[in-house]
Amino acid sequence: MIGPAEQFAATLAPPVPRAQAAVHCRGVTKFFGADETKVTALAGVDVDIPYGELALLVGPSGCGKTTLISIVAGLLDATAGEVEVLGANLDTLRGSKLVRFRSANIGFVFQQYNLLPALTAEENVAVPLLVRGEPRAQAVRKGAEMLAEVGLGDRRKSRPSHLSGGQQQRVAIARALVGEPRLLVCDEPTAALDARSGQNVMQLIKRIAVKSDRAVIVVTHDSRVYAYGDRVISMSDGKIERVEQPLAATA
Amino acid sequence: MIWLAWKMLTGDRAKFLGIVFGVAFGSVLIAQQSSIFVGLMRRTSSQIIDITSADIWVMDKRQQNIDEIRPMPENRLYQVRGVDGVAWAVRLFKGNVRAKTSEGNFRQAIMVGIDDASLTGAPPLMTRGAVEDLRRPDGVIVDEDGYRVLFPNQPIELGRTLDMNDRRAIVVGTCKSTPPFQTFPIIYTRYSQAVHYIPRERNTLSFVLVKAQAGQSVAELCRRIAQQTNLLAMSWVDFLMFNIQYYLENTGIPINFGITVTLGFIVGGAIAGQTFYLFTLENLKHFGSLKAMGVDNWRLIGMVIFQALTVGLMGFGIGLGLAATFFEVTERSGQGDLRGMFIPWQIVAITATAVTFIVLAASLASLRKVLFLEPAAVFK
Ligand SMILES: Nc1ncnc2c1ncn2[C@@H]1O[C@H](COP(=O)(O)OP(=O)(O)O)[C@@H](O)[C@H]1O
Ligand SMILES: [Mg+2]
């Protein structure tokens, strides 16, 4: 549920023109389990997410946010509905094609950072490039450059265990962006952080992730960061409730 | 990706060493326990093992092993010599004697009486004196470990005397033999002399050792000897197996040791498998993020197998080294119970196979989790 008006003033957002939609969902449905244990995680989601914006996906726990971004990122199949991502119909991408599509186009940021503890910061950032098959030296060099962009140039040899939570999340953001993805998906990136680090992380995403040819989706239920969204998509019970634009962003 | 797999594996030194030593410990248990088992089984047949110059062993039909001898009449030797395809055939005496040392101690010993003329069946490795010295009157050769039993706390030197069946014997040589099952001294002497060192018996011929003529099939000759003499004739290998088989079937060794070896496998396997399995499980989250980032199942399998093989190889190497050191140390310490034990290459191979199997099974078990891991689980 979106916060009350005194925390967050917004107007309804205008529809996204078809040509500008990086993500286009129509009637997306997802069931888990069957029969008595059947859970309806998504009950017909229609949503468009444009390039060049930071879209926040908000709503109470269990309303289907993670399920929706998992489907959009090609990690999970929808039970029914149409999902078009970056111009590709995900239904037609299967197996290794889908794996390659993800590796080429999608960046991920997780709530728990998921950095490899054995790797240094710059090596962690280089992982998506290694996955794509880039030579290690080159990948690590690009990783170091990307780390400098998130303000951790001096920590490139540090192991995750020697970094604060906020720093680790910045490394994770560098890792998500190093491969120049056209879609960045972040699930609750600030949930494990204190308020101040959370703000820093959102500012960082806003500053370096948002680009005219990239769509950014951030799942959050932290109302303090709503103001960073160009578009706030509220979900409830597996459906989109409303899509708004914060006044500050439009002003 | 191999680099990544290596980093993941070795990133946490302590954990990495833990896994490697888990596997090493498993390998030690497997290699050491089965080596001792094989060593004990070899010991039951040590006198067979040490006599390699003959192709065929001929004995009484009722004989079931090498220890409980059913002596044959002397004329059996000539019957065997008369069989077509026999190049030569010689006597062998084997039996237990009571030896009285110069200190007056009585000791049970194994007596091997070899052919007077050819000295066939002589000890395989002399350490003092020569096999030929057996031709000297009253000459006997004693194995070194047996020497220490017969003459405790005395320097090894030739010329000491023993008394068997009230007849004097002079030690004219010492040798190394494959240790026998009952850790008795082994006393070698000529056949004609051996029969005087034991209480008088009607028959004394324990075995006839046969060499087949060149080009003669040993199996075929065994059949012919058995047919014509109504004796039991077996090739060296068959007799070895026959004897081991007897001990496997008629003693508690296989059960007891079978249990120990099985436990070695289970405990070793559990430790090796468990540590590696846990390692992969701990990394499940990371395998999940790699999956989300576009690493397909094949590459994940490759990574896990690489990790398994690395750990398996290192653990196996260390484990085998430790097991070998164990036998080396017990050998050097002169501790009789494990004398002559070593790790045969077959056990090296079996241990390697077992460890590979265990680690691969453990990694496949954990891989199952990785492979069926919904990539969406990364958001959990
Ligand atoms: N793998 C799953 N199996 C069964 N139910 C699931 C699974 N994943 C999510 N759900 C259910 O789907 C609903 C939506 O979950 P989720 O998308 O994780 O919500 P959110 O991220 O908004 O908290 C919840 O009721 C959850 O219990
Ligand atoms: Mg969620």
SSE run of chain A: EEEEHEEHEHHHEHEEEH
> What is the straight-line distance between the termini of chain A?
24 Å
Helix content of chain B: 40-55%
In this structure, how is the largest beta sheet of chain A organized? 7 strands, mixed
Which class of chain A in CATH terms?
Answer: Alpha Beta
**Annotated CATH topology of chain A:** Rossmann fold
Ligands bound to this protein structure? adenosine-5'-diphosphate, magnesium ion
Chain-averaged pLDDT of chain B: 87
Radius of gyration of chain A: 18 Å
Largest sheet of chain B: 6 strands, mixed, barrel
Number of strands of chain B: 10
Can you offer a commentary on this structure?
The complex is a heterodimer of chains A (251) and B (380). Chain A is α/β, with parallel strands linked by helices. Chain A contains seven helices and eleven strands. In chain A, the strands form two sheets. Chain A has a seven-stranded mixed β-sheet with strand order 1-11-10-4-9-8-7. Chain B has two domains: 171 residues, no CATH class; 158 residues, no CATH class. Chain B is built from twelve helices and ten strands. Chain B has a six-stranded mixed barrel with strand order 2-3-8-5-7-6. The mean pLDDT of chain B is 87.
